[in-house]
């Protein structure tokens, strides 16, 4: 059965099960199939994002936190993932990544252009994706990941390839350094037609998927732990009072970024791209992300946030400045 017909049947089964409250045996009788087939179709509906299960717990449930996040930070969508607070933050990331993978199946569809910023979180999300072939889609890297030792790092291209394979999309790696030695080199390369084609594709992306880089945390951001930043770079970031980054583009606590020195040598897009995208999806897990998240929200770079519950609570603990500048 073609995937679109399987989806249609999965939706029909889900309606009978969740809306009409039929048992799997009753649905099997109605459709002339087996209970095991009905169970597989229900599982497919959940994995492909056709069904989203929400638990409403009257005792400080995540949905209440989601509402507060939307109101406080002006988010279109907030999804808070329950995790055991006593568990390791690596376990939190596993749950958040699995939830994010399911959510992406609800927004990635035919003709989609999806921009991906590589990192520890996105690598984990890529490993949790559930296949959903769509027509005429593109997945493009938002920034380079090369280092001084190797210009074409497989870290970024592997994530892009996994996303593209999951959706039957065309992959577009960005084989340039994460940070150039000289701003002039970046400016010259950005004039090349082959690079301009990728930059234009990035600008067309209506769905951006990324995390916020953090300088601290039990699960460190790859850009800060992978040898991309020299000691002189770190000193420069401290002088510029940087709070976090998205796609190797840095910003301060108030969301300003235009005059941060290292951004002139970074391969990521202007952060205004994240303000314009209809689906600017930030996936974040771990309390070390809070400072960067607050800054990203102050800058208006996020309209969809997927986050674990302890980090969400900490994010709401103190009121932050809302002024924006760039």
Protein topology:
Layout: H1 3-19, H2 24-31, H3 35-47, H4 62-73, E1 77-81, H5 89-107, E2 113-116, H6 120-128, E3 138-141, H7 154-167, E4 170-172, H8 183-189, H9 193-204, E5 207-210, H10 222-225, H11 231-239, E6 242-246, E7 249-252, H12 272-276, E8 279-284, H13 290-298, E9 304-308, H14 309-317
Parallel strand pairs: 1-9, 2-3, 2-5, 3-4, 5-8, 8-9
Antiparallel strand pairs: 6-7
Could you give the order of the helices and strands? HHHHEHEHEHEHHEHHEEHEHEH
| Span between termini | 51 Å
Work out the helicity level. Answer: 40-55%
Overall average pLDDT: 88
Number of domains: 2
**Would you count the extended β strands for me?**
9
What is the percentage of strand-forming residues?
A: 5-15%
Tally of helical segments:
14
Low-confidence stretches: 320-326
* Strand arrangement, major sheet: 1-9-8-5-2-3-4
Counting helices, strands and paired strands, the structural category is alpha/beta
CATH class label of the largest domain:
Alpha Beta
- Gyration radius, in Å: 21 Å
Q: Examine the secondary-structure arrangement and name the CATH architecture of the largest domain.
A: 3-Layer(aba) Sandwich
CATH topology of the largest domain: Rossmann fold
Largest sheet: 7 strands, parallel
> Quick one: overall form?
globular
